[in-house]
Amino acid sequence: MGTFQFNYQYLTLLCTVVSILQAVVAQSRQQPKGGGGTYRIINGTQSAITEFPYLVSIQRRTSISKDHICGGAFINSDWILTAAHCLADETPETVIIRAETSFHERGGTLLRVGQLIVHEKFNGSASKDYDYGLIKLRKTFRRAVPAKLKNGPRRFRPGERCTVMGWGQTATTSISKRVLKATVPIVAQRICQKAYQDTEDEVTSRMLCAGYPNGGTDACEGDSGGPLVCRRKLTGIISWAEGCAESNYYGVYSYVTPMRAWIRNYTGV
Description:
Distance between the termini: 72 Å
Signal peptide: 1-26
Keywords: Digestion, Disulfide bond, Hydrolase, Protease, Secreted, Serine protease, Signal, Zymogen
Domain Peptidase S1: 41-268
Helix content: 10-25%
Family: Belongs to the peptidase S1 family. CLIP subfamily.
Order of helices and strands: HEEEEEEEEEHEEEEH
Organism: Culex quinquefasciatus (Southern house mosquito)
């Protein structure tokens, strides 16, 4: 009987350790790639895919699971726009897209990937600049509802209220199962540059900032690559920040307008 109890206790302990290790591995797989954090919606509100039908969940797939890693947005029936750091260590075989659902872990339509494109000047180990990525679907998805991209060189004025959305973590440590949204104001470029002047990160002309001086509402882990929408136009791609919803720091987005020619060259959009 003593031997049986020892083996049973040992087996229970072993199962507990394995479960903990699996949870740690799953969490690590959702961490940022190539510099610049993935993002979560802090102090956001619940939304639905019907409000943002172009939003997709970019997922890493294995033989046993599909794990949400980033957001993205349809820009036509063949292409999705996202952040480069979401794709830097992936291949078309390791990525799958979940579309048409408010929940990243269930429902909707799964779409296979044909090609991943990371901006040629993106180097996540050295800089957060040029954080632009494109995903080409293996097959045209006729039901895709594309986001409209911002045109023209003029930036939105500081204070312009925009919407950011995604499935990332909330104020807790777990990823939100349902899509969330938050409203954040555009921040003047010079103010954002000053906020980050004592850090290792540079806010370039290919970036724009949004958020509140006192923090409290922002995007963070799990939402990288998702859209920042201003006046119903996809204006920015969630890229990086110092922490999440931290005071005196703002969310930084890859600005779509300077890359319109690059996007058009690949996608025709």
